[in-house]
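Example record for the data management plan.
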Amino acid sequence: MALSPLDPSSYSRPELAVVKHVELKLNVDFEKKQLTGEALLTVNVLDTIEELILDSSNLTIESIETEDGKALNFTLADPVPNYGSKLTIPLPEPATANQHLKIRIKYKTSPSATALQWLEPKQTSGKEYPYMFSQCQPIHARSILPCQDSPAVKFTYNAEVTAPEPFTVLMSAIKGNSSEKATFRQPVPIPSYLLAIAVAVLESRELGPRSHVWSEKEEIDRSAWEFADTEKYLQAAERLCGPYQWTQYDLLVLPPSFPYGGMENPCLTFVTPTLLAGDRSQADVIVHEIMHSWTGNLVTNRNFEHFWLNEGFTVFLERKVGASLIADKEEAHRSRDFSSLLGLQELTETINQNLGPTSPLTQLVPDLNNTHPDDAFSRVPYEKGSLFLRYLEDLVGGPEVFDDFLRSYLDKFQRQSIDTEQFKAYLLDYFKDNEALKSVDWTTWLHKSGMPPVIPAYDTSMTKAVTVLLAKVNDTSSTLDYSDVLTFTPQQMINFLQALIDQDPLPLDRLRNMGKTYKIDTSKNSEIVYRWLRLCIRSRDESKLIEALQFVNNQGRMKYVRPIYRDLYSWEAVRERAVENFLKNEANMMHVSAYTLRKDLHLKE
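Corresponding structural encoding:
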């Protein structure tokens, strides 16, 4: 069932009346684990309405009134699990097109709000103070404020937040200078999923003219070093996409339970501490979040069926910009393709092993009528989407012509929310004289499940060394030596380990010998550690079980935690221990991690 005509996951009806601005006043209470306050919504009426419908999840609504204080009635329907409740506000008299309404809602959040994680001091680095942060994407903003919780709706916002000393409040907006209260303004319209807040005892360091990094003091020096090139990435992004429109680009390094690699909250990207590799090798995540400043944040998917317009574009741009930082043109091309091949490896595992090639969730544009966006989340929109764009780029004549199209597309649709048909129509109109586009099988690309119908002719020169090494490791009569991997970049090592994951498990003694000889078993790079632990589990190395469980307990990045739990679940002898470990640690996880892991481990909700 779709909750509304435009968005299967939202009750709201923005085609009738749309929220354009929000004034938030919030108070942070760590003891009760709740936000209390009010939201003043400015609504533009588009069609005659007798009521306003909003999304709400686990909120206690204390009162609703007009701007001048006249009380309004409201009804809060019974909640639908994981979607929250429909909040209906009948208007005293019908409102007609072009009218502006202002509605003030006084409310408080629940301690179990799905968008918020309230960490105990022991879950932080400093161990002294609690820490709260949000994750609203895809549809959890409704647990922080009553809103039209659909990416079809974009609004500006101002906020005033009161928190006790010595806490710092940060939001996805530009921070004001008031010493009394934390004030914020976001003058660029955003979808509700980009509303973000974090409250903790934090320090900051300047990274560049428009960037600071924030973290607990224990991580601040490592964070400042790891992300020192942020301004360089921003400038490279601007060269491809045009001026950066969000004024500031700050980073917040969160505690380890943060479920994603990064979240592109405007003005303040949230990142996982697993990026602190000590070698700047995970910079691609920062470039990815920077690219979202255009694709996702300026041009936004209309609902989460079109999530590839956010993520496929962002991965595509991330690899272009990453390559543009390499001076040697040939090397840049090889490097971009090598990243794309790594992505293709991950896509292949997702489609052929995790979801299954006939799963409707492997379609580029899935139907979410009976599917929660959190259940649809996978590498598919990222990698199948980015591969589709690369196929189109090659087809129309390469970056020389496609880069101009990209800028034109960003210019045309900036500050809007669009769907796949609008992208397709714009592309076909822009390249109307290009005969090659007539060969695109749109139905298969967009609406058929399984692997993409065409794989671009990527340059494989950087994978050749990996292929040679793979053959050597699989030939158990050959002797391994550290010189085999001496010249490998971290990315090549990741590509090699991923290739081993995609084949039958190695005999355990061979795997252990490899781990030791190639110094994989002592790596500090989380991308390498994660794949190494998966290989140990797949080769049934019981001596690694405690390390694998510690790894999933010490950080909550779903990219790592979900595959490891799935691998443990497939190993019958340790399945019970894995489930037991999850249940013991579930309380320390953010909602989305616990929710998806329960499904991975076949537990009831």
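Summary line stored alongside the record: The longest strand covers residues 17-29.
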